[in-house]
Amino acid sequence: MPIKPDETELGTKRRARKINRVLAETYPYAVAELDFTNAFELLVATVLSAQTTDVRVNAITPALFARYPDALAMSQAQPEELQELIRSTGFFRAKANSLMGLSTRIVDEYDGVVPQKLEELITLPGVGRKTANVVLGNAFGVPGITVDTHFIRLARRFGWTEETDPVKIEHEVGSLFEKRDWAMLSHRVVFHGRRICLARKPACGACPLTTLCPAYGEGETDEIKAKKLLKYELAPGREELLDKMRQGATRRELRVQGYGLEA
Ligand code: SF4
User: Fold this and answer.
1) Which of 95, 117, 148, 227 is catalytic?
2) DSSP assignment of the chain, as one string?
């Protein structure tokens, strides 16, 4: 275990849990950013989210799920029609193959129902550990840590791990927290990575973790300049959106009210 010079294992654990508490206060509205109403929709949306943004995926899934509401319908899709519906998410031919492949397997081997075990989910075409954990954590309430690019970057900046391998990071970070906190922790860390602790220029001067983060200073420390770097509802001028999110408005309600949720 890492990480801050002179920090004990217990110290790292305590600091990690404090970070989680501050993130919970900062993002009380953190949720999976992909829109879904059932496990199949979440599985499909997560496969589509590779190499693109959740916002882009959310823009096309209503039409996609209206056309193919379940695994059986999607397994019988015309490839060209499916590709057209998901084209804007990029890599659409490969993604269409994955979606048809995973739908067919769900129909053939699991009676059309998305399996609930990690080892079964990762055998579906196009479904890796990350996607499986997203589905387990958010559709089935099974504790899981979703290790995506944001999570890896932040876990390393926080000094929670020095690993680069996602599976090792999942285990190492998992050992710092109670299992019941894993899913929400994942959402909060990803929210923070998308809004404040950005990849190229983290907004350290506007970050609530300055005293807890060993990487403070890796980004912009001037408060005024840092605030200009913030994204989504924390971006300058979006205070009204932030208020509504803090009051519990759902993403769907906000979209209906005309709020753009993009960065
Ligand atoms: S202090 Fe800087 S590096 Fe650390 S979490 Fe905040 S933005 Fe990221």
Assistant:
1) 148
2) ---STT--HHHHHHHHHHHHHHHHHH-TT---SS--SSHHHHHHHHHHTTTS-HHHHHHHHHHHHHH--SHHHHHT--HHHHHHHHGGGS-HHHHHHHHHHHHHHHHHHHTTS----HHHHTTSTT--HHHHHHHHHHHS--------HHHHHHHHHTTS----SHHHHHHHHHTTS-GGGHHHHHHHHHHHHHHTS-SSS--GGG-TTTTT-TTTTSS---HHHHHHH--GGGSTT-HHHHHHHHTT--HHHHHHTT-----
Is 204 near ligand 1, meaning CB less than 6 Å away? Answer: yes
Q: Is 130 a catalytic residue?
A: yes
Q: Does 4 reside within a domain?
A: no
Residue 225 a catalytic site member: no
pLDDT tens column, 15-72: 999 999 999 999 999 988 899 999 999 999 999 999 998 889 999 999 999 999 999 9
In terms of pTM, does the model score above 0.70? yes
| Domain region containing 60 | 39-128
- Same domain flag for 159 and 66: no
Centroid of ligand 1 to alpha carbon of 20 (angstroms): 13
